[in-house]
Amino acid sequence: MTIWIIEEKCDGCRRCIKACPYEGIKIKDGIASVTERCTSCGACIEACKKQNAIESDIEPRKIPDFSDRQGVWVFADQTDGKLARVCLELLGKAQDLAKDMGHKVSAVLLGKDVSHLIQTLHDHGAQNVYLVEDDLLKNFRTIAYTNVIEDLVLTYKPNILLMGATALGRDLAPRVSRRVGTGLTADCTQLAIDPDEKLMFQTRPAFGGNVMATIACKYASPQMATVRPGVMEAAPCKPENPTLIRHKISLKEQDIRTKILERVTQKKPGTDIIDANVIVAGGRGVNGEQGFAMLKELADILGGELACTRLIIEQGILPHDAQVGQTGKTIRPEIYIACGISGAVQHTAGMTGSRYIIAINNDPLAPIFKLANWGIVGDVHEIVPEFIKQLSCGGAS
Amino acid sequence: MNIIVLVKQVPNTTNIKLDPKTGNLIREGLESIMNPDDLHALEAAVKIKDKTGGKVMAVSMGPPQAVDVLTQAMGMGADKAFLLSDRAFSGADTWATSYTLSKGIEKIKDYDLIICGHQAIDGDTAQIGPQVADWLDIAQATYVNDIESVDENEIVVKRRLEHGFERLACKMPVLLTVISELNEPRYPHMEQLISACEQKAPIKVWNAADIGVKTIEVGLEGSNTHVIKTFTPNFKRQNELLEGSNKEVVSDLIDRLKKSDTTIAYRL
Ligand SMILES: Cc1cc2nc3c(=O)[nH]c(=O)nc-3n(C[C@H](O)[C@H](O)[C@H](O)COP(=O)(O)OP(=O)(O)OC[C@H]3O[C@@H](n4cnc5c(N)ncnc54)[C@H](O)[C@@H]3O)c2cc1C
Ligand SMILES: Cc1cc2nc3c(=O)[nH]c(=O)nc-3n(C[C@H](O)[C@H](O)[C@H](O)COP(=O)(O)OP(=O)(O)OC[C@H]3O[C@@H](n4cnc5c(N)ncnc54)[C@H](O)[C@@H]3O)c2cc1C
Ligand code: SF4
Ligand code: SF4
């Protein structure tokens, strides 16, 4: 399997380089040349249609006919009869995808005594609800749920199957994808239907968020993705003719091979700062416990978590697991708001990977401003309350 | 008890450098390390072996230079190591990777327990563990942060969930994916490391034919998902100081956040 360049035809237009996901091709002396990183994926051939300068011995793989695969499915992740928020968010996105493909939206609900959730699923866009109830489905166990979803997929043949990237979804989805013989894209932050081929383009972060990749699943069906909670938007709507489909399957306890001995819910439901999308961090410029209570309020509005510098840990204001830096945690949230933090290297070592850094400090020469996308010179005890006020009256959720 | 540990060689993304001009990831010169979660998987395996006896076998799929992580694994107490390496394996998605690993494991055959990391820091999917378990048709437990007891019939583990934890009993054989809370990995033992480096230690290298897979079933060709394009999110920092009254600077900031490509933008 190789590709090669017909040098006389190449005009150095660089289209191939843009198309290559692997840095497999570069321009040398104005002409494209293949590098050792090339994986023979063929993406550049398509890009060079105009000049036709790239040839290969890659057998074009036949794309199977999936026209009988209809419907956009969302797995309704529930625990103890409560839906995970992310499945309503996915139903919102599923409506867009289904519209672009001319398909219908369905939800898949598994459990025991969960029929009170059906209406909520309809009200968030699911025209069909596939319901499977069984004593053995009461609590989530991987093999039981996999067997049921496999049966549903083989019976009703959906085109797309989405699951939330929750602890449950990330345990279940890979197993289901293997079982039904398809691909799976993890932790997506964007989903869209490509207008040409009607494929779902799935975009996700990799390399710790340093790279974004757009992935498609052409050769297998259904197209499966897990999606991060909080990324999509729920969109309540009333579908016409909401339909309930009860599906029966016989499960045997001995096939499931695991037994839950105990499940414990711990009080503080906060996310680890490593996983939080938004971090509001405070340093010595924040006035003690009272000041941190104010930062907590801001963090709550933004759906984020509190973090701090080492001095704050030493003062006993926050527990050790909130410390960012060389001797604390390394985090890379989407948004890092540094309040009253000078920006000592031991601290910044743990946060320079953040996507956006916002600094609030009353010293215009504080080193933290050099790292920030946006800086505000001022007193945190005035700026933060103003921030809270404007976000609250802006109708934030 | 015979334990297989899956280890992956990854670029050290915690030290990632971006090209100051283009903002692109600089991949050259990125140091290669053992995936951090896999250190915890090895530690757990060696601890169990110390109690029950048996062997720890490390398995990796990757290019020839991935022997480095297998050597390190032997330094930490693995008895044997297997490298699945073939040009045909390159470009694999998790479907093809998990298939290749499971065929390697089937060839090793003699195992009671498989332990792997929860997530690799490069591909970041956390899909390999459950997929390998399904290829092999064995039980799985993910997000494991404690191993309470283990014998030939059953293992009891604790799993970290969003709002607490779960204690799960699994019938053997089983595959665990572990997170860093589980233990403190030991440092490689000098003598073990030296003996592994001197090639006295048996690191077997198997190619596609050795594990009985066709080249069209593995690597890029055997994959179901394909990367269409990659791009670097824009990390360039403007270092802009916002000016005006408190009210003005805050509303300016909120505007910028609303226009940003972040997941919270729409909620503001
Ligand atoms: C070996 C070693 C390891 C370390 N590891 C870590 C680590 O992991 N993490 C860590 O954080 N630190 C670590 N440190 C400590 C680090 O060197 C700094 O001392 C610490 O980060 C400074 O914390 P700070 O920014 O909160 O305080 P300061 O440096 O005192 O900064 C306070 C800032 O607040 C501003 N300010 C004051 N009042 C206001 C106001 N009203 N409004 C707005 N701004 C105001 C000031 O202008 C100042 O810039 C380590 C140190 C050593 C020696
Ligand atoms: C930018 C980018 C995005 C990608 N996105 C996807 C995607 O969405 N879906 C998809 O199917 N593939 C994807 N891939 C391909 C995927 O990264 C590879 O298949 C990779 O070999 C395994 O996935 P992982 O790194 O995510 O491993 P994870 O599943 O995160 O790894 C978990 C554990 O499995 C074990 N393990 C993983 N790989 C190996 C190995 N080679 N040898 C031994 N043990 C191993 C280790 O114990 C590891 O700790 C992507 C690749 C890139 C470069
Ligand atoms: S796209 Fe074709 S013509 Fe353009 S640089 Fe690449 S090989 Fe040459
Ligand atoms: S075949 Fe694929 S990897 Fe190789 S140069 Fe073309 S686009 Fe890049």
How would you describe the overall organization of this protein?
The complex is a heterodimer of chains A (397) and B (268). Helices cover 27% and strands 26% of the residues of chain A. Chain A has 397 residues and is an alpha/beta fold. Chain A folds into three domains: 3-56, Alpha-Beta Plaits; 72-252, 3-Layer(aba) Sandwich (Rossmann fold); 278-392, Rossmann fold, CATH 3.40.50.1220. The longest helix of chain A is centred in the first third of the chain and has 17 residues, at 85-101. Chain B is an alpha/beta fold and 268 residues long. Chain B folds into two domains: 2-217, 3-Layer(aba) Sandwich (Rossmann fold), CATH 3.40.50.620; 236-268, no CATH class. In chain B, α2 links the parallel β4 (56-61) and β5. Chain B starts with a strand and ends in a 9-residue tail after the last helix. Chains A and B meet through α5, α6, β11, β13 and β14 of A and α3, α4, β7, β8 and β9 of B. β22 (374-377) of chain A pairs parallel with β13 (240-242) of chain B.
Summary, kept brief:
Chain A is α/β, with parallel strands linked by helices and 397 residues long. Chain A is built from twelve helices and 22 strands.
Secondary structure: helix percent of chain B? 25-40%
Helix count of chain B, per DSSP? 7
Number of strands of chain A: 22
Approximately what portion of the residues of chain A adopt beta-strand conformation?
Answer: 25-35%
Structural class of chain A: alpha/beta
CATH architecture of the largest domain in chain A: 3-Layer(aba) Sandwich
The helix content of chain A, as a percent range, equals 25-40%
Main sheet specs of chain A: 7 strands, parallel
CATH class of the largest domain in chain A: Alpha Beta
Number of strands of chain B: 13
Tell me the overall shape of chain B. globular
Task: Please tell me the overall pLDDT of chain B.
Answer: 89
CATH architecture of the largest domain in chain B: 3-Layer(aba) Sandwich
Within CATH, the superfamily of the largest domain in chain B carries the name HUPs
Low-pLDDT ranges of chain B: none
How many helical stretches of chain A?
12
Largest interface: A-B, 98 and 84 residues
User: Largest sheet of chain B, if any?
Assistant: 9 strands, mixed
Overall outline of chain A: globular
Mean pLDDT over the residues of chain A: 91
Number of domains of chain A: 3
